Amino acid sequence: MEFTHFNQSGRAKMVDVGGKQNTNRIAIAQAVVNMQPETLVAIQKGGVKKGDVLAVAQVAGVMAAKHTSAAIPMCHPLMLTAVDFSFSFDSEAARVVVECAVKTNGQTGVEMEAIHGASVAAMTIYDMCKAVDRWMTISEIRLMEKRGGKTGHVRRRQVPVVCIASGCSKTGKTTLMENLIRKLSGRGYRVGAIKGDCHGFEIDVPGKDTWRFTQAGAKATAIIGPDQWALMQKTGDKMTLSSAAEKVEGVDLLLVEGFKRAGRPVIEVVRREKGTQLATSGDNLVAVATDVTELEVDVPVFSLDDYDLVAEFIIERFLSAENKFPDTNLGEEA
Prior knowledge:
The chain is of the alpha/beta class. The protein has a six-stranded parallel beta sheet with strand order 7-10-6-11-12-13, with helices on one face. It has a five-stranded antiparallel beta sheet with strand order 2-3-1-4-5.
């Protein structure tokens, strides 16, 4: 690997891109603003005294993307053809996810413009809200995707998370999830599983060494074997689904039992004897598995034992390349 921003004397230089062809280039970057739940609600409801937080953040981000070369010394001044932002709320983790998409037709990429835009938009959210929540943090500033240039189209891999949930217990969530894991694993997909438990749980065995460590007061205890390891962490409060999902490695898909209000896609399980009222609303509901034949919803409906069909739906919706990696909202490439 060679660094290109140094000359033969070892001094910094701006790379000569004059010999490159003009091509359509797109970059998408992300930044996350973590905050108190009350701060997130205030942003959503327009209750921040300084004004419309996201509107100001978007303008600041666009301005930052256009002036990246003034802040990052070796960046080239570029004629940007489009800059756009999206903001998503993660209520369960109390955070705002900022996404900045930048486009140009030129001789060098716009990765730094996208990263700079996302960063400044996130900092603007902090500035707008610091009077009520000065301990907000900004994290996960990173490039998510780029198109054009020598490397073509590359994208940061993100594991899809799908929740299997319902409005009450004993509806068959575990049975559905167990069979989906079996079907998807049989198709060659690596599936991870997370279960939500609002009652508390113990998975250690009394008398074992790890149990003794925990009983002695250890806040975290891990055990490492030849082909697996486990960590038991005392958190003091409930871990968010986002935090738990980030700790799972080596999987293509995460299936989660519960967490219907975590802002993730939900396949809701509805059993007639437990009631037919849906517990999931809005865009998070992506499908229903039920024994109710007359259920009227605007999403695909499967029988409770249609494991193959539900598995195929998950593959098409979340694991196939064309649906997992949709086009950006900056328009078609020429």
